[in-house]
Amino acid sequence: MILRAASPPRRALVRQRAAAHVVVAAATLAATACAYAAWPDQNALRPAGIQAMRIASLWHWTLLVCALVFAAVLAALALALWRRARAGTVPPAEDGRPLPPDPR
What we know:
It is found in: Membrane. The protein contains 2 helices and no strands. By secondary structure, it is an all-alpha fold.
C-alpha cells in the first residue's frame, strides 16, 4: 500500500497552475500595452518617413490602376451578357420557320 500524504491535493495544484497562468497572461498583456504605447504613431494610412510616403504613393497608384482595370472587366462582362441576351432572339425566316442554329 502506497501512502501519498506528503503530496499536496490535486485541486490545490490545479489552482496554483491556473493562478500562475493568469499572472503570466496579465504580465504579457501589460508588457504589450506598454510596448504599444511607446511605439511611434505610424501606420499604413499615415506613413511617417520619406520612403514610406513613396511606397504609399505607389500603392495609391496601384490601387487606382487595379480599380480601373476591374471596372473595365465588369463593363466588358456586362456588354457580353447584354449582347448574348440580345443574340438569343433569332428572327424567323421569310417563310415563318425559325433559322437553324449556328453550327459553331
